[in-house]
Amino acid sequence: MTEALLVLEDGTAFRGRSFGARGTAPGEAVFNTSLSGYQEVLTDPSYHGQIVTMTYPHIGNYGVNGEDVESSRVRVAGFVVREAVREHSNWRATGSLQDYLTDAGVVGIDDVDTRRLTRHIRSSGAMRAAISTEILNPETLRAEVLRSPEMTGLNLVDPVTTEQPYRAADVTGVGPTPREGGKVFRVAAYDYGIKFNILRLLAAYGCDVTVLPAAHPAEDIARGSYDGVFLSNGPGDPAAVRVAIENTKQLLGRIPVFGICLGHQILGLALGGKTYKLKFGHRGINQPVKRHATETVEITSHNHGFAVDPASFDRDGDAALRTDFGRAEVSHTNLNDDTCEGLRCLDIPAFSVQYHPEAAPGPHDARYLFDEFVDLMEASA
Question: What CATH number does residue 359 fall under?
Answer without folding.
Answer: 3.40.50.880
